[in-house]
C-alpha cells in the first residue's frame, strides 16, 4: 500500500549478566530507545503482578508502526547529518578553536570527547559533547583519556589535535629554558603522544581523518617567537610524516594554519589594545589586518577543520591550508 518499510535492524537487546543495550543512528536516538525499553519493562513487570501481560497482535502492532503519522515522521527524519554516527576526539577543547571544533562536530551529528586541562571542560552543556579533564603533556593521563573514549563509545573516527600555548615573546639569546621546554612539550610532544595513542583505534575507524592545528608562524615566523614557531614547525613536519605512514591504513592527516584568532582566552581586551597600540592601529584595524580585511574567528577555523574531516577532502592528505584572511608574508 505504498508504505515505506521500517529499518528491520534491532533497536535493543538483553545482555545477560550486564543489562539492556540500545542501538540508534545517533546518541539521541539510542537514548529514546533506552527510555522506551525502560518504561516498557516496568509496564510488563507491573502487569505481571496484576495478573498477566501479553503483547498486541501482529496486526495491531503493524497498525501502530505503519500508521500515517509514523510514516510521515520516517520521511522527515530520512536526512542524515554529515558526521552522524562518528566518534571524535578534540584536545584543547575548553575554549577557542578547540571548543568551536567540538561544538561544530556535535551539531553535525558526531559524538565528541572534549579534552582539556581546564576542569570546566566537564561542565560543557552542549549535547553530544563529553568533557575529560586531562593534561595532554602527561602521557599516562592522555592514554587514559583515549582509552576512556573507546570504552564509552566503542571506537574513534575523527581527531582534532589542537592543544597548545603561545609562549611569551623572547629573543633567541634570552629564551628561558622553562619556556622553551614548555612550548616543545605542549605544542609538539603531546601531539606525537596523542597520535601514538589514537592510531590503533583510528585504523578501525570509519573514514578516519586527523586535523592538526598548526600556525601561521610555520610559513611566516616572526622575531621573538622562536620557542612557539620551532614547536609548530616540528608539529607540521610530524603531520607530514604521519600522512605518509598512515595513508596505507586509510587515515588522512591534514594541517590548518590559523592566524590572528582573537576570540580566545589569550586575547583579553587589555592585551588586544596593547598589541594594537604597538602597531599604531585601532583594535578593529588590528583584528582585520590581512589581505581580505576580515576578522578570523574560532568558528572559521572549525569550519575549515570539518571540511578537512569530511567527504569534500576524502582524497586529500598531507595538505596545509591557511585560515588567516590572507597574509602577505605567507602569500
Descriptive report:
This protein is α/β, with parallel strands linked by helices. It has helices at residues 27-49, 58-65, 68-76, 96-107, 139-153, 177-202, 226-247, 269-278, 283-287, 298-309, and strands spanning 12-15, 19-22, 87-91, 111-116, 129-133, 158-161, 209-213, 252-258, 320-323. Strands 5-4-3-6-7-8-9 form a seven-stranded parallel sheet, sandwiched between helices. Helix 6 (177-202) links the parallel strand 6 (158-161) and strand 7 (209-213). The model has no long low-confidence stretch (mean pLDDT 93).
Mean pLDDT: 93
**Shape label:** elongated
Helix coverage percent of residues? Answer: 40-55%
What's the N-to-C terminus distance? 62 Å
**What order do the helices and strands follow?**
EEHHHEHEEHEHEHEHHHE
In total, the number of strands is 9
Structural class: alpha/beta
Strand composition percent: 5-15%
* Rg calculated over all Cα atoms: 24 Å
Strand order of the largest sheet: 5-4-3-6-7-8-9
Q: Note poorly predicted spans.
A: none
Largest sheet: 7 strands, parallel
Please count the helical segments: 10
Give the helices and strands, then pairings.
Layout: E1 12-15, E2 19-22, H1 27-49, H2 58-65, H3 68-76, E3 87-91, H4 96-107, E4 111-116, E5 129-133, H5 139-153, E6 158-161, H6 177-202, E7 209-213, H7 226-247, E8 252-258, H8 269-278, H9 283-287, H10 298-309, E9 320-323
Helix pairs in contact: 4-10, 5-6, 6-7
Amino acid at each position: 500500500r505504498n508504505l515505506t518499510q521500517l529499518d528491520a535492524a534491532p533497536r535493543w537487546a538483553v545482555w545477560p549478566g550486564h543489562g539492556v543495550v540500545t542501538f540508534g543512528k545517533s546518541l539521541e536516538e539510542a537514548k529514546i530507545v533506552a527510555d522506551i525499553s525502560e518504561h516498557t519493562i516496568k509496564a510488563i513487570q507491573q502487569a505481571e503482578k496484576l495478573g498477566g501481560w501479553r503483547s498486541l497482535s501482529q496486526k495491531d502492532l503493524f497498525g501502530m508502526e505503519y500508521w500515517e503519522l509514523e510514516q510521515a515522521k520516517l520521511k522527515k527524519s530520512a536526512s542524515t547529518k554529515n558526521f552522524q554516527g562518528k566518534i571524535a576526539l578534540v584536545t584543547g577543547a575548553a575554549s577557542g578553536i578547540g571548543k568551536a571544533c567540538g561544538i561544530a562536530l556535535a551539531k553535525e551529528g558526531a559524538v565528541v570527547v572534549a579534552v582539556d586541562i581546564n576542569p570546566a571542560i566537564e561542565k560543557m552543556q552542549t549535547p553530544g559533547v563529553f568533557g575529560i579533564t586531562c593534561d595532554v603533556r602527561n602521557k599516562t593521563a592522555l592514554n587514559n583519556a583515549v582509552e576512556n573514549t573507546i570504552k564509552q563509545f566503542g571506537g574513534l573516527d575523527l581527531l582534532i589535535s589542537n592543544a597548545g600555548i603561545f609562549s611569551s615573546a623572547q629573543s633567541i639569546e634570552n629564551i628561558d629554558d622553562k619556556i622553551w621546554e614548555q612550548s616543545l612539550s605542549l605544542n609538539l610532544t603531546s601531539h606525537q603522544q596523542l597520535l601514538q595513542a589514537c592510531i590503533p583505534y583510528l585504523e578501525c575507524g570509519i573514514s578516519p581523518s586527523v586535523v592538526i592545528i598548526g600556525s601561521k608562524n610555520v610559513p611566516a615566523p616572526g622575531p621573538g617567537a622562536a620557542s612557539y614557531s620551532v614547536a609548530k614547525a616540528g608539529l607540521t613536519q610530524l603531520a607530514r610524516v604521519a600522512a605518509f605512514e598512515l595513508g596505507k591504513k586509510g587515515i588522512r592527516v591534514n594541517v590548518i594554519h590559523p592566524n590572528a584568532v582573537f576570540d580566545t582566552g589569550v586575547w583579553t581586551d587589555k592585551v588586544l589594545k596593547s598589541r594594537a597600540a604597538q602597531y599604531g592601529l585601532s583594535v578593529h584595524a588590528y583584528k582585520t589586518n590581512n589581505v581580505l580585511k576580515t576578522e578570523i574567528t574560532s568558528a572559521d577555523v572549525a569550519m575549515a577543520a570539518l571540511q578537512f574531516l569530511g567527504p569534500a577532502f576524502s582524497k586529500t592528505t598531507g595538505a596545509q591550508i591557511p585560515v588567516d584572511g590572507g597574509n602577505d608574508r605567507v602569500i
